[in-house]
Amino acid sequence: MTVLVGLIVMLGMLVVVPAGLRLIGDPRLDTVRRLWPLAAVPGALSLWVARGPVATALASVYAVATVVLAAYAPVRLYRTRSLAACEIAVLTALVTPSVAGLALVAERSGHELFGFDLRILALTVPHFHFAGFSAALIAGLCCRASSGRTGKIAALSVPLGTLLVLVGYFLDDWAELAGALVLTAGMWAVSLLTWRDIRTQGRDRLTRAMFATAAGVLVATMLLALSWALGEATGIPHPSLTWMAATHGLGNALGFALCSVLAWRRIKETAAV
Fold it and tell me: Transmembrane ranges (predicted)?
């Protein structure tokens, strides 16, 4: 793990996921959320330990927690019996951290899972915390708050795009590009909704500023994602993975995910008063 990628992953593990679980508003997730640090802290520590048995054991603790979270998705589906667009996005958010957890265990053990090199596995961990969990969750929240077609497009496109990107890992760069196109469409729909509808719900300047930042950052970071995917598929010059981590990755982590969950939390806390 590079230092930057490690710090981004820690943000996802320790802050974004537990804050996001609170935003789902499901009391049955309260126990998972309260116990999450017991798994997230070992997971974060595994990032700074040399690959081997100790790092693998620490990563495995976190992976178990992500699997428990994913296992709640079918339980929630059974209880709600809903496949509405908003609910599909929330279910996706519950499942995607388990992909990151599996990749983390493989990378920390030095095992090239499914033939993927360790660098790709290392980048899969933040990808499925932010393009997976955070993006799907925020898309679902935007869908809940909007009665129009754009909310449904966002809530369906983000999970579908995330799935297609994952499938593209196993097929080829063109399949991954298709996933990036769908995911970008969904994320830009989230950006539009955040700027047009959600931002105005903030009762204070800070909340509105965080929503505005999240909306603006998405436009830039997803352009970077498209340029990288297009370059991988066609061979035209495109940003390196290191540059993508420092721009696309950092922007999505701080500018989109963190700003979004904090702003949404402020809205919900204000509404509860």
Answer: 6-23, 57-75, 82-106, 118-141, 153-171, 177-195, 207-229, 241-264
Residue 184: Cβ-neighbour burial (10 angstroms; 0-12, 13-18, 19+): buried
Q: What is the CA radius of gyration of the chain?
A: 18
Query: Which among 94, 93, 91, 111 has a CA at the least distance from the CA of 102?
Result: 111
DSSP 50: P
Among residues 132, 127, 165, 159, which one has the least CA distance to residue 143? Answer: 159
> Which of 259, 243, 126, 269 has its CA nearest to residue 194?
259
Query: 167-182 b/e with 16+ CB inside 10 Å = b?
Result: ebeeeebebbbbbbbb
Q: Which two tokens stand for residue 20?
A: 């996001």
**pLDDT score for 130:** 93
CA trace torsion 4, 5, 6, 7 (10° rounding)? 50
Query: And the tokens for 85?
Result: 């667009």
Return the sign of the alpha-carbon dihedral for residues 4, 169, 214, 77. negative
Indicate the DSSP class of residue 185: H
pTM for this one?
0.93
Q: Which residues of the chain have pLDDT under 70?
A: 1, 270-273
- Which residue shows structure tokens 């997730």? 29
Domain 3-272 in this protein, CATH class: mainly alpha
Total number of residues shown for the chain = 273
Token pair listed for 103:
């990749």
Q: What six digits make up the tokens of 204?
A: 């204070």
